[in-house]
Amino acid sequence: GGTVQCLPCLGWSRLQRGALPLPNPLGWLPWEEAIRNQAIAFHELGWPLEPMFEHGADYFGHRAFATVKQQIITELENPFFYFDAIYCINLDRQSERWQAMEQRFYHLGILHRVHRFSAIETPESHYIGCTLSHRIIVERAQKLGLDNVLVFEDDALFLDTILEDVSRCVEELKRVDWQIFQMGGHRWGNQFPLAPDCQALEHPCRVITCTHALAYHASVFEKMLRDIPPDVAGVAVWNQTNYAIDQYLCGIEGRYASRPALSSQPYLLPQEDPALRDRFTL
Description:
With 282 residues, the protein is α/β, with parallel strands linked by helices. It contains nine helices and nine strands. It has two domains: 13-77, no CATH class; 79-279, Alpha-Beta Complex (Spore Coat Polysaccharide Biosynthesis Protein SpsA, Chain A), CATH 3.90.550. The protein is 40% helix and 12% strand. Helix 5 (126-143) crosses helix 8.
């Protein structure tokens, strides 16, 4: 909630204490994470990274810094870097599902970025808990001032070419006014047209249901938080009219879907493209 003032004219300051950083009695970030944060800031400002990397290697040691540098470069080049935050919704009692998702996220190169969200459990109707879980994540994203947030549910499966395909989708998302980006879902036998001047995005595609892999843009945060009640009792009443969050999202205008579907669920595989349904292996 504070203000950050960036003063690049101050340049770098170096503590004369040998090759290792000072102790960390105040709970400062580990140096690896501090360097990562600086690299992300430089990247967003369009500044070259090499001068910072050279300084870091001189200060922290070339051997130790080489690994950190490669991790940063890999993260910045991953197409999922486009999304400001990534969450995965998982019930506390279903730890085996989270372990399976950890393996999938590791193969996608995003495990260190995914926040596990402890799903709201509502035994009377899982639709209530699902809706409320998504709402809380959107509320967090708004409070953090994020441009977008990517949400997975813990039974999401991923196409074996998802990294290449997400890269193409991201380049097109940058050119359109999107509010929801759907990586997969139940199409109910429908075919959707490509968005104008796009090869990886379909639009309009308002009848897709399921919320196992989708992103919310900041432009839809306020509407969702205004429309969806913030508590279990309120959502229970809200669902009597809206049925579930995926049904509600069908009414959002700026909704785009990937072509092909990049994420599926075990029970959705029979409805996927026959040429692809055996390739949701990540």
